[in-house]
Amino acid sequence: MLMKKKFFTVLKNDKKTIARIGKLSTDHGDIDTPFFSVVGTSATVRTLSSEEILETDTQLVLANTYHLHLRPNEKVIKKLGGLSKFMNLNLPTMTDSGGFQAMSLGAGREHGIGKIGFFPNGKKLENTEDRSLVNITESGIEFRSHHDGSRHFFSPEISMQIQSDLGADIIFAFDECTSPLHNFEYTKKSMERTHRWAVRSLESYNKKQKIYGIIQGGVFKDLRLISAKFIDKLNFDGIAIGGALGDTKDSKNEITEYIVSNLSNKKPRHMLGIGDVDDIFEAVERGIDSLDCVWFTRLARRNMYFIYPEDGGNKINRWRKNIRSVKLILENPLSEYCKCNICSNYSATYIKHLVVANEMLGMRLITYHNIFFVNNLMKQIRESIQNSKFLELKSYWYGK
Ligand SMILES: [Zn+2]
């Protein structure tokens, strides 16, 4: 009889914080934690080939259920052997549940806010169930395609079926992600529905993939406590923290700390949709094992490249520069310190020329470097926990 591999193993806990290193075992290979999930929304990390994704030391790619359902559809991907095969990418993959679209296509888009939003005049939203682009009921979420306006419906059962067909190693329970503008009553109502959807997701998923439950509850500590306890005690393989965590980075850290302190230590913890350099340090310090964010790839397409402390990167300059506005020394790479193939072979002057001339290659080379950068940052973090020097590494990066 084949021994079933344990999904998550904690290898070492940091002594001064609750940061930890561990290992996730999937059918497509092991993943060292903490790690960064590189976002490949439509089964592509925009501008990079799958060979290049491997070169950047990426450990896992996160794709989007909503986008892949609309185009090319999960049945096509299933016929071609599942997400990894479809992408010609020999790496573990994750798919989100599609529930986030309730926010990004509904309240989020209408109010122009993200997860860390401001509260104009302290005004809160009461209800966003019935909006022009989404309609949320107990059975699920009806939404309109952003491509052609056609109507679609996701329920926990449908999301599980789509994610089963997509065939990622790790999937997420179906949830509604509330906005920071939602008031207490709506956030509570939505959270309770998300809990019922979590149970329905567990009952209907294929039992072969690894599934993470999602904690909601917005910026309200008492709701977060209820949600953390509820999701933690269900039979999920991992726990994800979703939704709005507050209007400042401090409140985000405080809520993260509070949630994690109410979770058991055995399951891996993922933070959804968060991840600038300092967000990564703060989350790992508070016991988060993985994160995902479009930040490093999106900024690459806005001419921003990341730099290490050795290049002068710190909390003030946000570890990045705009290639259009930097004064370059003729032959220097983007980063003197970086060991990526771009920095080893291309001058920043050439990349700036490409960007200024609107050549696509410029964007591509910066994307490659930025992804290598965040994967290297995670590697440094793992080594620092191994050597009991996590806080020292953090101070060094922050420039203190
Ligand atoms: Zn580089």
Architecture overview:
The protein folds into two domains: 22-293, TIM Barrel; 304-393, no CATH class. A hairpin with a 6-residue loop joins strand 8 and strand 9 (151-154). It is globular, with a radius of gyration of 21 Å. The strands form four sheets. The chain has an eight-stranded parallel barrel with strand order 4-5-6-10-11-12-13-14, surrounded by six helices. It has a three-stranded antiparallel sheet with strand order 1-2-3. The chain is α/β, with parallel strands linked by helices. It has 15 helices and 16 strands. Helix 8 packs parallel to helix 9 (249-261) and helix 14 (360-386) runs antiparallel to helix 15. Helix content is 39%, strand content 16%. Zinc ion binds next to helix 12 and helix 14.
Which SSEs are present, and which pair or pack?
Elements: E1 8-13, E2 20-26, E3 29-33, E4 35-39, H1 50-55, E5 61-63, H2 65-70, H3 74-79, H4 83-86, E6 93-95, H5 101-111, E7 134-136, E8 141-144, E9 151-154, H6 156-166, E10 170-172, H7 184-204, E11 210-215, H8 221-233, E12 238-241, H9 249-261, E13 269-271, H10 277-285, E14 290-293, H11 295-300, E15 304-306, E16 320-322, H12 341-345, H13 348-356, H14 360-386, H15 390-398
Parallel strand pairs: 4-5, 4-14, 5-6, 6-10, 10-11, 11-12, 12-13, 13-14
Antiparallel strand pairs: 1-2, 2-3, 7-8, 8-9, 15-16
Bound molecules: zinc ion.
Residues 334-335, 338, 340, 342-343, 369, 372 line the site of zinc ion.
